[in-house]
Design goal:
seven-stranded mixed β-sheet, 13% strand, globular, binds pyridoxal-5'-phosphate
Length: 426
């Protein structure tokens, strides 16, 4: 290919153009050549740099830092589920499962929704299994939106929401929750709706701020949703990682919402297996139909052994699900009290495995949260994530996110390093 292109370009295939091995850094001459013959990639996606999570993790590796940045648990997940996934492969279940998902898993999702939320769900027509909540979100966008449709979402927002919406030509209306209490700004929310609004994207319990929307807030949102006749995609991947102060209420359970809400869950969060990427959507049959088409053409299906193991997981006794919060509360409090002693106060956190820290005390005058996080990795050996990663623009400069689903030893190591660093600053 390169040889043919070079000939057309009037160049023989010179050693200067030829990379010595696949993936080798390009020579300046090769770069120039490529730029002349390869059209640019999509401008919207090309405009996004490497995600800050990747960048911070890479920096953490480089500096052997304790990584409280990216959100994955130290917990390896239940052995019985991991064994079930392995056995299913060994036993030969390795071909395409049904496009909608294994019946056992769809039945388990429907039974789970009935058990925990009293939702009556037809597993055959109202449940779709996806490759993670990430695919579920994208399928919902693809299945529901036309270019120019408006989507309301809440900021700070999980970083994967906006890029694909923009890529599809949707117009995003952002409603900003304001620290420290992150309560719903009702006037701003009402003002974000227009005749073009098609969808609201709601994440409760919410990453990165650990907020659980209250029944009152959800009722207010539901009234707007009915008034403007829109869909709501509810990203509820942290549904079981709640700490008791504020119960998680799926918007789908509120009056009038059953026929317009799409509820997304993820095995990655509920069973501490973030690499499995098994997600599920519950939605009314007619609403789910076009989303199923999106799924059919995006991934078609999800690894059968993982689906099988997740079906077993969703059938576990109540105690498993109710027991997920307690160890997280302990870890949250261990980290929060250590940070408070270092003049790094934390904001309230009722769910998820993320804490937001106020780092104002240690910010240099010209420093923002990104520069602060970089300095912290290098000088203190602790990786955190700047909150600006969750905003389009104009984010607060003094907030950073820490992940606390870590072993005591990891949290203690991070606190020790921060303590040594703080001592040098004072
Ligand atoms: C709010 C939120 N939604 C979706 C996802 C992605 O879930 P999955 O790994 O199942 O694709 C995450 C992962 O961190 C998340 O925090």
């Amino acid at each position: 290919m390169i040889a043919a292109g070079c000939a057309a370009w009037g160049l023989g295939l010179s050693t200067e153009l030829d990379s010595p091995y696949p993936g080798a850094p390009q020579t300046p001459r090769l770069r120039e050549y490529c730029a002349s013959v390869v059209k640019a990639g999509n401008s919207i996606l090309s405009s996004y740099g490497t995600s800050i999570f990747e960048a911070m993790s890479a920096l953490a590796r480089e500096h052997a830092a304790v990584n409280l940045g990216q959100g994955f648990p130290d917990d390896r997940g239940r052995l019985d589920l991991r064994k079930a996934a392995a056995d299913y492969v060994i036993d030969g279940h390795n071909q395409y499962p049904p496009m909608m998902g294994l019946p056992a898993l769809r039945q388990a999702v429907a039974a789970h929704d009935r058990r925990f939320y009293g939702l009556e769900v037809d597993w055959q027509t109202e449940v779709l299994v996806t490759s993670g909540a990430t695919e579920a979100l994208f399928d919902c966008y693809l299945g529901l939106l036309e270019a120019g449709d408006e989507v309301v979402l809440f900021e700070p927002a999980y970083d994967a929401y906006a890029p694909m919406l923009r890529r599809l030509g949707a117009v995003i209306r952002r409603v900003r929750l304001v620290p420290p209490d992150w309560s719903l700004p009702r006037e701003a929310l009402a003002a974000a709706f227009s005749p073009k609004t098609k969808l609201v994207l709601l994440n409760s319990p919410m990453n990165p701020i650990g907020k659980v929307f209250t029944r009152d807030e959800l009722m207010f949102l539901a009234s707007l949703v009915e008034q403007h006749d829109v869909f709501v995609v509810c990203d509820e991947v942290y549904e079981h990682l709640v700490f008791g102060n504020a119960p998680h209420i799926p918007l789908m359970t509120l009056p009038g919402m059953r026929e317009r809400v799409l509820r997304i869950g993820s095995a990655g969060k509920t069973f501490s297996v973030t690499g499995w990427k098994v997600g599920y959507i519950t939605a009314p049959a007619a609403v789910l139909r076009p989303i199923t088409k999106a799924h059919q053409f995006v991934t078609f299906t999800t690894a059968p052994n993982l689906q099988h193991a997740v079906a077993l997981g969703l059938g576990l006794e109540d105690a498993y699900f109710h027991g997920l919060g307690a160890p997280l509360v302990r870890s949250r409090d261990r980290l929060a009290s250590g940070l408070a002693a270092l003049e790094l106060p934390v904001l309230p956190c009722d769910a998820t495995y993320f804490l937001v820290l106020d780092v104002s005390r240690w910010l240099r005058p010209d420093e923002d949260d990104v520069a602060f996080c970089r300095r912290l990795v290098v000088d203190a050996g602790v990786a955190l994530v700047p909150m600006s990663a969750f905003y389009e623009a104009g984010s607060p400069r003094h907030l950073v996110r820490a992940c606390f689903c870590k072993e005591d030893a990891t949290i203690d190591a991070a606190l020790q390093r921060l303590s040594a660093w703080v001592a040098k600053q004072r």
